[in-house]
């Protein structure tokens, strides 16, 4: 009986090692998203979708996961640049209601750090340009082409406001801001070139393929199969281009 038991245990261990080695050889490298990062994905996607009932639930889960109210507030402010003021403001109003309900229950959520004052004498355009180059790892090309040449005003707005006023704030890291960005873009749809660009930026700010695959799974469970399928296809294209 003892020998039979040892044989079974040994057989199970061999099977485990085999399947673990198989998984390790095929799985993308890197760790999974943290609970806080996963919550940023669900909060951004749900806010962009405009599902305020569901948003209350994911906001509560995000606070329970350890996000500060300022981190959540900043993520909702950030996404207005991609989903518009109406979605962002409704998200902030929902966050206000959730925090008030939690206070009434005796839950005192940490506020967290405010954004630091910007100490930089460069113009906002130059600061935004430098941040964009840091995010993409690619120097800006001159002369301008595409939409930047067709509508120079929006290219200025992009540098001065999105990448200076918004990305320069330090409440969230670049990686966290990119998770918010790709979550919004995957949710609203029809902006595949932008999603592809920001998934490339995600890799450049040290998010791993494993984490980005998890992002696509979260979009599926939070928003829907169609959005997740599109996000996964674009992600696969991005990852395959790196090989």
UniProtKB/TrEMBL annotation:
Domain Carboxymuconolactone decarboxylase-like as annotated: residue spans: 33-92, 158-236
Chain segments annotated as transmembrane: none
Coiled coil: none
Domain of life, source organism: Bacteria
InterPro entries found in the cross-reference section: 4CMD/NDH-1_regulator, AhpD-like, CMD-like
One Pfam family hit: CMD
SUPFAM superfamilies: AhpD-like (SSF69118)
PANTHER family linked to this entry: 4-CARBOXYMUCONOLACTONE DECARBOXYLASE FAMILY PROTEIN, CARBOXYMUCONOLACTONE DECARBOXYLASE-LIKE DOMAIN-CONTAINING PROTEIN
Name of the protein in question: Carboxymuconolactone decarboxylase family protein
